[in-house]
């Protein structure tokens, strides 16, 4: 969701208001996706790297997160939306953590639409967390150092499926389309593990200006290359 | 009764006609998009010829030194065309790109068996036919004393701008390599003196993960730019740990 500050500069408004416009654009996107029949949407709200930004900006995003949690609590009940927060939530303040956990618990039973908000997230942190959890679980299962050395029983080793089920994003399947606004061509540590067969779409428009026609265009582009991606999925 | 039956039949027919019209509209839109994409492709090919012929002034100075490491995703069909790959590498060498990583999506391991990627199998042939090219390979070592030598070797190779260095990476260097690195870390975790293994704090760091990936032979540098070819942009499983901040074009 790149381009909030550029949008604010363009509209000659406060940078922080740019983030409010970005949050509104996300809300619109959720509704458009529901109408189109999309079941899983994941949004990259805040990276662990973003803590390096100006403290006022970080505070604004945290305040916006809290307001969004309140709003999503209301929306989730109306439209049976499951809300999941993916990331190292321990880096958040206690009140946001508790509000996020309450929302996740209260919507755990809904499966009409799954919205994942990546907050305090990077893919490298996600992989590391999954590896740590896998190690701890293998240790707890009694598979310790005794007899563990190179070339021993394959079944005692950690496997891809062990890591993938402990990822923050295990709740959703691998994405079909990954959209980045703001004209950037890098993934910036977002869903790098999950996007092997994903259509990477880079749009020049800034995030607050992302609308239904941009979404329709990206979906049409994906449909044009559907067979290419289906073939790739079989190969991988 | 007849009237309600007729209205149901009429409603069903109108729904079917509506669906047919929508489907036709969808096909028409995709046909128009295909025409537009075809026109854009022709324009891109024309621009490529103008750039390579030197007629477009703004592309004359490329500032290629900013590009420290280039990676290219080669599709399976392309990976078998070794002569075309050699030609591509010769072009890159002529342009001034010195450090290239070629990735193909074949090559995976299952249990104790390993199948090499297509490019890895033909790497000797490629290197022989490319004058002065060197192989860049992260060797799998288990002895810590070797790491310092390996690091020094890597730095020397990447600083060398006389020779082109080539790295060959396949699908098995992606998720499977992370799994192998996880097992290396598990071995260290098991041997460690941490008394409470149920602690919630982090036990591994990103640098430890990077070191573990080097240990298993999949710890190459992060490319600045990843080129993908095909009808759509997709990184096809290039090792995730290495393209966190890479421009993918």
Automatic annotation (TrEMBL), chain A:
Keywords: Membrane, Transferase, Transmembrane, Transmembrane helix. NCBIfam families: uppS. Pathway: Protein modification; protein glycosylation. It comes from Gossypium australe. SUPFAM superfamilies: Undecaprenyl diphosphate synthase. It comes from the Eukaryota. Catalyzes cis-prenyl chain elongation to produce the polyprenyl backbone of dolichol, a glycosyl carrier-lipid required for the biosynthesis of several classes of glycoprotein. PANTHER family: ALKYL TRANSFERASE, DEHYDRODOLICHYL DIPHOSPHATE SYNTHASE FAMILY MEMBER. One of its GO terms (biological process) is polyprenol biosynthetic process. Belongs to the UPP synthase family. The chain crosses the membrane at residues 21-46. This is Alkyl transferase.
UniProtKB/TrEMBL annotation, chain B:
Its main location: endoplasmic reticulum. It catalyses: n isopentenyl diphosphate + (2E,6E)-farnesyl diphosphate = a di-trans,poly-cis-polyprenyl diphosphate + n diphosphate. Its EC number is 2.5.1.87. It is an enzyme of class 2 (transferase). The keyword Transmembrane applies. One of its GO terms (molecular function) is ditrans,polycis-polyprenyl diphosphate synthase [(2E,6E)-farnesyl diphosphate specific] activity. Its cofactor is Mg(2+). GO terms for cellular component: dehydrodolichyl diphosphate synthase complex; endoplasmic reticulum membrane. PANTHER family: DEHYDRODOLICHYL DIPHOSPHATE SYNTHASE COMPLEX SUBUNIT NUS1. This is ditrans,polycis-polyprenyl diphosphate synthase [(2E,6E)-farnesyldiphosphate specific]. It comes from Gossypium australe.
């Amino acid at each position: 969701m790149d381009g909030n500050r550029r949008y604010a500069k363009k509209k000659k408004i406060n940078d922080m208001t740019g983030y409010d416009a970005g949050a509104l654009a996300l809300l619109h996107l959720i509704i458009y996706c529901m109408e189109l029949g999309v079941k899983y949407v994941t949004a990259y709200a805040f990276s662990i790297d973003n803590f390096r930004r100006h403290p006022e900006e970080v505070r604004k995003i945290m305040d916006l997160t809290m307001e969004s949690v309140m709003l999503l609590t209301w929306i989730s009940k109306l439209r049976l939306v499951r809300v999941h927060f993916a990331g190292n939530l321990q880096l958040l303040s206690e009140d946001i953590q508790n509000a996020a956990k309450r929302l996740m618990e209260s919507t755990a039973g809904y499966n009409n639409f799954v919205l994942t908000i990546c907050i305090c997230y990077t893919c490298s942190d996600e992989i590391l967390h999954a590896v740590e959890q896998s190690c701890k679980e293998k240790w707890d299962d009694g598979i310790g150092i005794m007899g563990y050395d190179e070339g021993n029983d394959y079944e005692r080793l950690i496997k891809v499926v062990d890591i993938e089920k402990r990822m923050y994003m295990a709740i959703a399947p691998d994405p079909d389309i990954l959209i980045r606004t703001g004209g950037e061509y890098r993934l910036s540590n977002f869903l790098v593990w999950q996007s092997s067969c994903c259509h990477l779409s880079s749009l020049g428009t800034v995030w607050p200006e992302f609308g239904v026609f941009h979404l329709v265009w990206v979906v049409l582009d994906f449909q044009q290359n559907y067979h290419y991606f289906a073939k790739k999925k079989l190969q991988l | 009764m007849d009237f309600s039956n007729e209205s149901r039949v009429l409603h069903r027919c109108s729904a079917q006609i509506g669906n047919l019209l929508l489907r036709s509209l969808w096909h028409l839109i995709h046909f128009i998009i295909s025409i537009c994409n075809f026109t854009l492709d022709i324009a891109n090919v024309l621009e490529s010829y103008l750039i390579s012929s030197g007629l477009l002034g703004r592309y004359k100075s490329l500032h290629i030194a900013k590009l420290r490491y280039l990676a290219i995703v080669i599709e399976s069909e392309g990976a078998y065309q070794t002569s075309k790959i050699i030609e591509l590498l010769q072009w890159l060498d002529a342009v001034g790109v010195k450090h290239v990583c070629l990735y193909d999506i074949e090559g995976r391991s299952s249990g104790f068996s390993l199948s090499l990627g297509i490019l890895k199998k033909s790497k000797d042939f490629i290197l022989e036919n490319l004058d002065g090219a060197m192989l860049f390979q992260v060797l799998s070592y288990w002895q810590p004393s070797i790491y310092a030598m390996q690091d020094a070797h890597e730095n020397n190779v990447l600083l060398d701008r006389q020779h082109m260095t080539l790295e060959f990476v396949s699908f098995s260097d992606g998720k499977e390599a992370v799994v192998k690195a996880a097992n290396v870390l598990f071995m260290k975790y098991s041997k460690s003196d941490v008394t409470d293994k149920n602690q919630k704090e982090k036990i591994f760091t990103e640098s430890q993960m990077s070191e573990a990936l080097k240990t298993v032979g999949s710890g190459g540098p992060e490319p600045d730019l990843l080129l993908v070819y095909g009808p759509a942009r997709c990184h096809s499983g290039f090792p995730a740990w290495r393209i966190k901040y890479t421009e993918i074009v």
